[in-house]
Design goal:
32 strands, TIM Barrel, 1018 residues, alpha/beta, Rossmann fold, 26 helices, 5-stranded mixed sheet, single chain
Length: 1018
């Protein structure tokens, strides 16, 4: 019996040690994948760069800030400035704002968003919670006295009435509704109403809709989780019953001198009732203000600060957001034969869903303004029909739009007129338009000048928007070399001239039927116009055309194009042709849908595309397993390195190289083993570890759109290493306003300054690549991730991203624009098959990206999770090979987003299409796993794959050669491996687990054999 107990003891110990061994090995794999992130969080290092002599001389990129204190101050100041110039004043009856008082301005805050504000998005786009300055605190610091009892009232309700948010639905078989969860009137019986009169200079009501990654809102009943919150026929973006009751409650108090509404949202809300309410004095959109933005809002509202609003809307504020053409197809649509496509219970192929975008080019203001134009100029087009109308009867612009794209008020007024003698128009080239701005009001201010273009259109021609933004400028920003800190206001009576450059490639129309596909400029008159938003500019054009009388003809200049121009090659000589034929659902399933045309608004208005059945050909593409690796082919012409061998070439020899054809790249690649490169392709997230062997250190990456998700000190290295005693140690760098607020500044300078500051952050933290800017379009306000994207307009998006890129890359960080392309909703973003027409795609979503590459020079792009047609975006040859690397001549890095499902995000098809990196953390490039062929032994037998992999490495090296990756490096630099304490602990556990398993297993076997022999002897 004693022997049996001993045997059981050893068996138990063996099992325990085996569990420790397996767990430790798994932990090591995960920790190794996130090594840089883990080191940054724990303040440890896994390698050290050693140089002899003064390291400063080895830094090509030096920070603009000598101390962390200066860097932190810049974060606070720029965040505040962005909010000041980005907030949009929508209503200001009787000059209710700014507020003034002999002493502090006494105000009472209302609404749960005044306490639980949405400062940013979520996940990669979140600000540092501990650094978020709450509204009451910021206002109290800037000349206000905020009613403390009302602040305490809302704080006591935080757990019960946390604002609702868009539903979490990254993978979903049905649309999920959301709640608002505003405080109901029943709770106000306990509100400190007796204090209101003491804080009655203004009541400030804050309303909002929270949003974030992997979340969406939905139009109609589907989008409302709690029907009791809303009146019948409402949308989730409309005011809930409790929000309406709150507004009425504030009005009923009768003691407040002013009632002001702030909109804390990046999803445009339905606020027509607030606009029309005579008791609401002011409405201001503030978006997501970031950590320090409320200081800017306080200054805007306080007359003593001298600050005036200068922001304009980046999206159309519709009366009913569910009535737009795009809203007819925004939801969960599953293939009838989804089970035949993917039989797995977990939807491993992410192939069950589709979305048809049949609005064509008519999204956002391009729909509302074009239909308005046709309702007056061409009513025979059906523009005034009831289809898509928010009220019974015919469609009328005044009943559809509360505030148009580009709209925004100031505390002063401006006149804008184009100066023809200083403008030069080349319709088939580059034009420069000079605009004279005069402050015609009584206070100083800044004016953002928006330039629009009306193209000639006739029935039978390619679709055209009646008006489109082509450029913008802002007063007070013309002086070269001046930083953003120097605020230059235009004084009353003063004038300033601004010049806007317009490029043909960013307004030409795309015609799929012109040859093999080409851009076209039809003959006729082209009207350039400025105005307070798209609607005002269009009315100026219509006045110049003789259709209206109230517009400003001095704000318009025109030029004629005698003959139609066909643009079938780029300025660099690359051929332009159709790349997305298979993304039109009609090419796969004929007559599935009709795309919206302004020639027949009623007959072509989009219908919901439901209940489709994928064909066998489509199923093959949806499964994304179309390539079989060759074996035994000759690949000797591609020179890679050999494991354990080097000729002494150092990665730092690439330092500062900007010529893609420089022979040094081949020299470096010849020292990189294919085995290491395969790992780099298949499992790269937070570092480029394959370069470490060549004394290059790690190329660290980091999210996000509101700043690097890193902290000073724990991430600072080299000459920017910090002592833990520094008061700015652990300052989080993710502090900025959301991208729509940046865009609403309409400021080239501020966008570039944000990029520069994030570039400085990258220098301090040795971050080589930044996963931003994000730049998908706001196809609809229901997309929960709109907080990460700039606007509904591609040109505003393109220039904002370009300016940010220029600023960031000037300081050495590689920008990774995302998500390329068509990530226009979060629900089922993983794999949803997105269908569209090529003209709509090129003139809207893709135009912004084109500008970011051509005007901004971004060195990297991240693809999207969704499919382009039936093909995973990273594997779509039309998108990556044909358009990006072909027409746009992009030579930088293409990376996937973080791999979620390797079964459909296949590496072979992606790399062959032009993708370079599969952003992944799990070792799935092993025998028997999803990407087992991503190993040297398989790649080396396939000539096409070997050549593609070689070029992929070339792309990566080219992008990083002139960046902070090689900051502090020289040919004498040594990189020595360190073992941080967390790694030693895991290694020790592996050793203990292995030794314990071996010893206890041996003893168990010994005891078992002994027991068995003993029994035989007995």
């Amino acid at each position: 019996m004693k022997e049996k107990r001993g045997s059981n003891l050893y068996a138990g110990l063996m099992n325990i040690f085996a569990v420790i061994l397996v767990a430790a090995i798994m932990a090591y794999g995960i920790a190794d994948s996130y090594r840089i992130t883990l080191d940054g969080y724990l303040g440890t290092q896994s390698s050290v760069t050693i140089n002899d002599g003064d390291e400063t001389d080895l830094y090509d990129y030096l920070s603009d800030y000598e101390t962390a204190e200066e860097l932190v101050a810049a974060h606070m100041d720029l965040n505040e400035r962005l909010e000041e110039e980005g907030a949009v004043l929508l209503k200001n009856e009787n000059n209710a704002l700014p507020l003034s008082s002999d002493g502090n301005i006494k105000v009472t805050l209302f609404g749960m968003h005044s306490d639980l504000t949405q400062f940013s998005g979520s996940i990669g786009a979140t600000t540092a919670t501990a650094q978020n300055v709450k509204m009451a605190d910021a206002f109290n610091a800037r000349g206000f006295e905020v009613n403390p009892d009302m602040v305490a009232f809302y704080q006591g309700l935080e757990d019960t009435y946390t604002p609702g948010r868009a539903s979490s639905s990254a993978v979903s078989t049905e649309a999920v509704g959301a709640t608002v969860n505003e405080v109901p009137q029943s709770e106000y019986a306990a509100a400190p109403a007796d204090t209101y009169a003491s804080y009655a200079d203004a009541a400030i009501i804050v309303l909002g809709r929270d949003s974030g990654e992997s979340c969406d809102y939905f139009p109609g009943e589907t989008g409302i989780a709690n029907p009791d919150e809303f009146d019948e026929g409402s949308n989730i973006l409309g005011l809930s019953r409790d929000e309406k009751a709150l507004v009425q409650y504030v009005k009923d108090q009768g003691c407040f001198e002013k009632i002001i509404v702030l909109l804390n949202t990046t999803s445009t809300m339905e606020i027509e009732s607030l606009k029309d309410d005579p008791e609401i004095d002011s409405i201001m959109w503030i978006g997501n203000p970031g950590c320090y933005g409320f200081y800017g809002i306080a200054d805007l509202m306080n007359a003593a600060s001298g600050v005036s609003p200068s922001g304009s809307l980046v999206d159309t504020y519709a009366v009913n957001t569910a009535n737009s053409p795009a809203a007819q197809n925004f939801g969960v649509y599953m293939w009838n034969n989804a089970a035949d496509i993917d039989s797995s219970s977990s939807y491993a192929l992410r192939a069950a869903w589709y979305l048809v975008e049949n609005e064509g080019i008519y999204d956002g203001y391009k729909y509302y303004e074009t239909r308005y134009y046709d309702s007056i100029v061409n009513p025979a087009s059906g523009a005034t029909s009831s289809v898509g109308s928010s009220i019974s009867g015919g469609w009328d612009y005044e009943n559809e739009v509360s505030y148009p794209f580009g709209y925004g008020l100031s505390y002063t007024t401006f006149s804008e007129e184009i100066v023809p003698e200083k403008s030069e128009i080349q319709i088939d080239g580059t034009s420069t338009i000079t605009v004279r701005v005069t402050n015609t009001g009584d206070v100083a201010g800044k004016d953002n000048v928006q330039l629009y273009l009306a193209l000639p259109y006739a029935d039978g021609q390619v679709e055209k928007s009646a008006i489109q933004l082509v450029g913008y400028a802002k007063t007070g920003e013309a002086a070269e070399g001046e930083g953003y800190e120097n605020v230059v206001y235009l004084q009353p009576g003063e004038s300033e001239e601004v010049t806007i450059t317009v490029e043909r490639d960013y307004y030409a129309s795309y015609d799929e039927a012109e040859g093999d596909g080409a851009y076209v400029l039809d003959a006729g008159t082209y009207y350039f116009a400025v105005g307070d938003g798209a609607h005002d500019a269009l009315q100026n054009v219509m006045t110049a055309q003789g259709y209206l009388s109230e517009g400003n003809t001095a704000a318009v200049v025109s030029a004629d194009l005698a003959e139609k121009q066909i643009i079938d090659e780029t300025k660099e000589g690359a051929a332009i042709s159709n790349q997305f034929t298979d993304s039109d659902i009609n090419s796969l399933i004929p007559d599935t849908t009709t795309y919206l045309s302004r020639s027949d608004w009623a007959g072509t208005f989009p219908e919901t595309v439901e209940s489709l059945t994928a064909t066998e050909e489509m199923i093959t593409q949806l499964r994304n397993d179309t390539y079989t690796m060759a074996e035994g082919e000759d690949t000797s012409e591609f020179a890679f390195g050999t494991l354990g061998h080097s000729d002494g070439t150092r990665a730092c020899e690439l330092k500062g190289i900007t010529d893609y054809d420089d022979p040094t790249f081949a020299k470096v690649i010849a020292n990189m083993p294919l085995e290491t490169i395969a790992t780099q392709i298949a499992m790269e997230y937070s570092e480029m570890s394959s370069f470490t062997e060549m004394a290059a250190g790690n190329a660290a990456c980091m999210d996000g759109p509101v700043g690097l998700l890193l902290t000073l000190g724990t991430s600072a290295k080299g000459i920017y290493a910090m002592d833990e005693s520094d008061p700015n140690y652990n300052f989080s760098l993710n502090t900025f306003v959301s991208e729509p607020v940046v865009a609403s500044t309409f400021s080239h300078k501020l966008a570039e300054e944000e990029g520069k500051l994030i570039g400085n952050d990258s220098i301090w933290t040795q971050t080589s690549w930044w996963f931003a800017p994000a730049m998908n379009l706001h196809r609809l306000p229901y997309n929960g991730r709109n907080n990460e994207y700039y606007s509904e307009d591609p040109v505003l998006t393109g220039y904002m991203a370009s300016d940010t890129i220029i600023g960031a890359q000037s300081r050495g960080v590689v920008t990774t624009i995302k998500h390329f392309a068509f990530n226009n909703m979060e629900t089922n973003r993983e794999g949803v098959a997105t269908f569209f027409d090529e003209q709509g795609a090129r003139e809207n979503e893709l135009r912004g990206f084109q500008m970011a590459f051509e005007a901004g020079g971004s060195k990297e792009v991240m693809t999207s999770f969704n499919r382009v047609g039936c093909t995973f975006s990273s594997a779509d040859e039309g998108l990556i090979t044909g358009l990006l690397r072909g027409e746009w001549d992009f030579k930088g890095i293409v990376t996937t987003d973080m791999v979620k499902a390797p079964e459909y995000e296949t590496w072979e098809e992606s790399i062959l299409a032009g993708t370079d990196i599969m952003l992944n953390t799990s070792p799935v490039n092993e025998d028997g796993k999803a990407w087992e062929t991503c190993q040297a032994k398989y790649i080396s037998g396939d000539a096409r794959m070997t050549e593609t992999v070689y070029e992929s490495v070339h792309h990566v090296l080219y992008a990083f050669a002139d960046s902070v990756w090689l900051n502090g490096m020289s040919e004498d630099t040594r990189v020595e491996r360190l073992y941080p304490y967390w790694e030693l602990i895991i290694i020790s556990l592996i050793a203990v687990g292995a030794a314990g398993t071996a010893v206890s297993g041996g003893l168990w076997i010994f005891r078992s054999v002994k027991n068995k022999n003993g029994k035989k002897g007995a």
